[in-house]
Amino acid sequence: MEHFDCIVIGAGVSGMTAAIYLKRSNLNVLLLEKSAPGGQINRTASIENYPGFQSIDGPTLAMNIYEQVQNLKIDYRYGNVESVREEHNDKIVKTDMGVFKANTVIIATGRTPRELGLENEKPLTGRGVSWCAICDGPLYRDKIVAVVGGGNSAIEEALYLSSICKKVMIIHRRSELRADPILQEHLKNKKNVEFYYNCVVSTLNEKDGRLSSIIVDHKGNSEELKVDGLFIYIGFEPDTKFLKELDLKMDEDYIVVDSNMATSLPGIYACGDVVKKEVYQITTAVGEGAIAALSVKKEFER
Ligand code: NAP
Description:
The chain is α/β, with parallel strands linked by helices. Helix content is 23%, strand content 32%. The mean pLDDT is 96.
């Protein structure tokens, strides 16, 4: 079985940062990812609060970081991690592509966008229902779309969609948005954006295999809204199911860490969106990746 100093699980911005710091510390690191490098930022149209860039789109930032990973010749492999377990002082990481051993592990698996839980949601995914404005937005040029949610993600992506689509409807379950005031102000200045407060999407209607309209419930009344697309931005679920063989301290399925990004188990660290914390930002994910890697480095210096 191949043995590493550290296995980083997840190549989002946090995991890639950790791997860069580990490699530059001359540690033998394996970076595992089940999808494309970059994780959630690949779904982000425009990032305006990452220092050094006035504005950058998520996939470009992801590729810039990935280029650094490649230039450092970091061992980057595809693999869906199925379990992590402890064996004496080693960690055994089982993936669908093989089993690996390491002295330490950094978990940077992030989180997955939440679903509404409606009947037609899965079959209509890619047929009108989407979780990625930057990927699918251009398919709705001059069309009518709705965005569900009132957080930063919903409002940032609605702003992007408003520059492409004929009309964008924001459907939010409360009477006020949760997003940063500056984003709210930008969106409220857009002429082609309509707000539906205290509204919940209850039905997705389909015609010829595509989303044709949505039913929105508002204080006991229902209204049908004709839409070509529906973008869902209602938060996330942490990707931690594969950790059930470990007795890790968790909080609502997020991993609990200390200020060194150490989990409750020796040699296991976590960083980025998979961690229980107050602030979920690209900047914090990057910082936590560096801290986790430097904590691992310290273990090898003892
Ligand atoms: P979020 O802040 O958790 O917001 C989720 C939104 O969806 C809330 O408005 C929530 O309503 C609504 N919601 C949740 N479940 C729902 C359901 N079942 N049906 C209808 N609506 C539902 O999620 P997010 O916007 O994805 O952001 C996640 C984190 O990343 C936040 O900490 C955010 O600040 C951060 N983020 C930062 C940036 C940035 O700074 N550039 C960009 C994106 C995200 P309620 O308001 O009623 O709870």
